[in-house]
Fold these 3 entries.
Entry 1:
Amino acid sequence: MKTTLPHFSHARYGSKAARGREGFSLVEVIMALAVMSFSMMGMLGLLSVGLTNFQKSMDLTVRSQITQELTFMLQRTPFKDLSSGTATSHYYDSEGLLLPNARKDDSVYTAELQIESLTETATRVSPTITYSTTPSQLKAITITISRTSASSVRPYEFTTYVSNTGL
């Protein structure tokens, strides 16, 4: 039995001369590169916006962590040690870790605590609020956190009220 191979015509698959011309023309390659470069330019514009938003969110996260740490510290402080009219400063690095006062030049964030008696801060409190304790047993503590290097960034301010629980 003799096996014969099918006959393929050059018209269907192209001749040897036609096969050398297959591929993309120079104009098609240039157009494809132009479309890709145009889309990449848009993505580069989004990159700067994304990095700016990332930096702002990291800044807000660190400030929130500092506020939580200071609020927790104030909750553990005896009420008699919270004297009105005092302001203290704490210094933090870029990760929100407390630095000793000797290294305040290396700080990225500065947190200032301002302690006031409630009678001194009556304008901040709504007159419709009723308290279960007398105003002399309440302190208003304002925590202001600012970046030491960036003067254009607004300071973050948080006010909390601490009552005398007798501890």
Entry 2:
Amino acid sequence: MSIFEGLFRSYLQDTTCYELEEGVASGGTTFFLPDCCEVWTGATVKVVMRRIILSVISVVLLSGCSPYQVREFSTPSIEPPVHFSEKFDQPLLNLEGRKTAPYWTQYGAPKLETLVSAAFENNFSLSEVIARIEQVRAQAQVAGAGRFPQLTVEGTGRRTRVETRTPIFAGGFTPATQIIQNQFAVSNGLSYELDLWERVASTNRAALLRVRATETELESSALSLSGEVFRQWMTALEAVQLERVLEEQIETSKTFLELTELRFSLSQGTALDVFDQRQQLASLRTQLPRVEMSRDQALHRLAVLTGQAPGAVTLEAVGDFFHVVPEWIPDVRPADLIVLRPDLRSILFQLQASEYDVAAAVADRFPRLTVGFQYNFTTPDLDSLFPNKT
């Protein structure tokens, strides 16, 4: 018994006929069924088997499946031991629905907020990440285009001139005759790939995950940029305060030197006291250039971070000091930072995208099934391509 006959027998099992006897008749094979069924010829059996095969193929096409089992990654569950610390026995920090202002706005320093805003608008590294987001979004659109049918339309035109000479009289008079031929053609094509192995779907999911990874990378870059601006701003403020303190100490040391020299002139002190005071004054003066260099370097870095030329940021843009010290954040465990850090979330998205890349590569090893049709139309008259129906 052939495979098709087996399928046919299983098909008959769903009816009220449970017995099938095979006989031979003129014109092909004839299947004799019990009295409840009629006699079917070989042609009828082929039609039934064709329907069965088409039904099986339709089920396979409509239920596309991936040959690779994609692993879903998530944030690992990291719980400290029970007796790790009494302070950290509470559950993980829950920030859902909690609105917190940016940390640089909690110092009461408007000039710091101005510097951070300028860095967000003009920083070149941040602009590069934003451009990369637009790039991966465009790539995701290209990857997702395979889910839709592709329509192609092509048009061609050709014009030829043929010159012929036909003799009219016996004397050989052959006038030239020109024949102009036009040919216009329009070709339309529509194709659609049946995603049997979820190759297109896996490619699209990987592209979308890379978009999310790049967007999270932008968040990480913005956080790092704000932190660097804050660090350089604090360095500049520290240098300004140290410079003022050193200048005051230098003036005080000068006063002590004058008093020490006066005591030495009155035989109330020794030359060693004068030497020590001069050495202390010189030591203070040597510290001043280092503080000024630290201040200038901080201003230079602030200018670069805000996308400006070196020297554009001055002490007036930095300010003198701040009056508000923000409240200390609650106790946060290292496990909380895994959930909060954007760079780790970006790595997680990249890992998941790589997993879908593997699924697409495995599916690419299998045959592809594309359905479609193509229509070509050729005419010597251009008006015939676009008839004007009224």
Entry 3:
Amino acid sequence: MTTNRNSLSTTPYDSGARRLPLLVAALGLSLALQTSAATSMLRAQDSQDARTLARQAWQAVDDFRRGGGQDQDPEHPGARFGPRLWEVAQSLPEGEDRHKAGEEAVHLMVHAGRFEAIDQWLSGLAASDPIWEAVLNRLPEAGSHLEGNRMATRQLKRLKQAGKDGLAVPISRIDFVLFRLLRTAGYGQEAQALALSLIKEHPDSEAAHTLRGFSQRDGLLQPGDPVPPFKMPTVDDGQLSSDSLRGKVLLVDFWSTTCGICLQEMPTIRAIEERLGEKGFQVMGVAFDQDPQAVLRAVESKKAEWPQVLASESDGLPGKLGASGTPYYVLIDRQGRVAAPGIGIHFVESRVQELLNQSADE
């Protein structure tokens, strides 16, 4: 029998050589699967950490408020938790968990009044980053404060400059938030112009649909419209007429005795009236109450000495000026025209100063 020496020496080697690439491939696949599994576990842990951190943050905020703490306070817990949550959000993969963590981080920092930090965060976001969709939910709330309004307006204008092709959110949504910021800041006519432009350029958008429903309510006066003459009884058995208010800048304060924020903001209104009353500033209250005595007791406790009328006896003023909730403020200019519907309390004094400085012909 003849033995093939070559076959004895090469066959095992050849078989191993053929198996080696398969082993390497299998090992690589195993490592890849393990890496993928580990990555998935880490991402899941990060998502869980974000949810846990958010719960801890809001629990700390609730405890802070129960202890008498206020928003914008230097010790507000949102200032501690917000940056940590934003950092976690940036480590998460694109998706709902990332968006939610980012939104909660901004929300916490708004309550803490840390608008400069929010500004820095948003400046680092690309216009194409989908997290903008969540961030936009919180910018109107930031806009209720002077610094926050400026920050939010600046960031949205920067976002628009990127052009619609590079945006993560529709232009119409950005413009709708800008509309709300302008209204809050007391620039009713500018807000109205933006709204009309949005409706014209994006007629099928959700924002246009919302604005049409808002602006086309029966009897609603638009910025620049004159307020019809009125004469109505006050809760202290007096009379209040538009004639007595002619030539003054008027703040109409829609409120109720059961509205805690309304009562909290009355001292701010009183301080503005004390500073600007002699220059031609006047306040009138419209209370969504049935009992005039309850209204009198509330305003006496807050030393709110301006005229008060019941909403039910105000000649339909809430509907004409768009007051569907409280607190709600509207500024009327010297010529008796709607100037700033829905203005935020922090913007009233500066806007009143501007209206007082306008000539009688403007």
